[in-house]
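Hello forum,

I keep getting stuck at the same step: I have a sequence, I want structure tokens, and every attempt I make locally crashes halfway through. Rather than fight my setup again tonight, could one of you with a working pipeline run this one for me? It's a single chain of 510 residues.
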Amino acid sequence: TAAAVEGAAAAGVAAATGHTGGGGDGRGGRLAAWQAPRTFSASSSSSSQAPTTPSEASALKWVPQGAAAAAAAAPSFADGPAASFAAARRRAPAGDGGGGGAGAAAGRGGRAKLKAKEAERLSEEVEDIVASRSACPELVERRDVFVREFRRRLEPELPGSRLVPFGSAASGLWMADSDLDLSVELPSAAGRIEGKRTLKHVGAIIHRLTGDRPEPRLRARIPILRWEPERPDVPCCDVSVNNSLAVANSQLVASYVAADPRVRPLVVTLKAWARARGINDRSQGTLSSFAITLMALSLLQRQHLLPSLQELAHVRGEPAKDVFDCDCRFCDDQIAIAEAIGSLRESRGGSQGDNIGALLHAFFKYYGADYRGGVISIRGDEDILRGGAGLAAGDGGGVDDVGQPRWGGAGPSAGASANSSRFFFVENPFQPGLDVANVEVGQMARIRDELRKAHRHLGQGRPLADLVTARHDRPFASAAAEADMSGEGVGLGSGRSPETTSFAQGGGKK
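Reply #2:
Ran it on my machine without issues. Output:
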């Protein structure tokens, strides 16, 4: 369960740091310091706005105090959905190129399905890996205090702005070695030019408050400010402007994570595997973390374990939520989701479905052997999403013409039809027809080969740890920085500002 994983993570934070060392950039030492138990000390503030709590007043002036601080409970993250849903199912979407089956898998050296004891053993291995990599409650607490203090300092400097976390920190997939993605939501900074100007202003503010020199990467598809604080006990941040669609996607993923306790360990393990095999870097033409997450969610929908939350919102008649001309509505109502879960569970005879070990093996089998190309999507029935006749008026869900519950239909989107022959085309949930994977043609065979190797490896009963042991010692790419890591090299002044405050104590970057 999620509670067991959290508890194991808190007890094994030393193991977590053991997974994050390495690299010639000193990142291992930074992570070890960032993960060490600490408490807060009082310090002065140059801002006229009083902090909410004493700990927020000194959010980044941390001093080691042993293990006592580790007992702090992690608060809920204010900017993400906090609903806790039961497990859900839905019928498989069409148009994603499924095919092959057990014979295809067996022909490539893998087995179609694990035996019950094998799946249970693999589930235990997954739990151990997730526990060793998860952030302890004290680490999550320090992250949240950091965000609140940064927001308190930044928003008065940019009137009308709102600092919003997204990515893994908002979706519930944040790990001990994860960076922090932040979007400065500022309506007046519409357009790319204004967005870049705002990023430069944010960089100047950070430099004045901390002495750090964030690196502008303004030529990226989504311009960002890469901030690696001088203090090793502060998380590295990627700051963007008006990245509202990314925020919406993170909230959608958070609802799926909350809907089924198998989602988080499955995605965390898959990202650890992809990173270890060197195929988790969009800038190199391999799979982004977001693409891996959507692939996992799509598989769970194919396995009838998750509904389409977007489709469910349309069925319920929820109003549209416009973000940059995209309808970003999805259902996060616990009662409605519970009703959908009940309908889907009844359709499969009341079964709870496979355990996490069996699902991990099924992921490698499907994408390594059965998948034949086409769009991978979690959107649901496009007839319903387009307001068509997918449901009759007053139909509270019901079943379709083959007796499957209508909580995630199979109608292809226009983007799916146009890209039906593409391989590893992972569709953006809120932008149909947009591929969030963008896997290079030259990398497709390599990715497929790694999937097949993993399927064969687990089918032979070999340890999961062998698959997640790093072959390529590199950090996870953040959601904002994955598109293009080229920077424009715009400076933010020289020397250390005399206005440096307790917001971050440490030498400025030279």
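DSSP finds 19 helices and twelve strands in the chain. If your local run keeps crashing, start a new thread with the error log.
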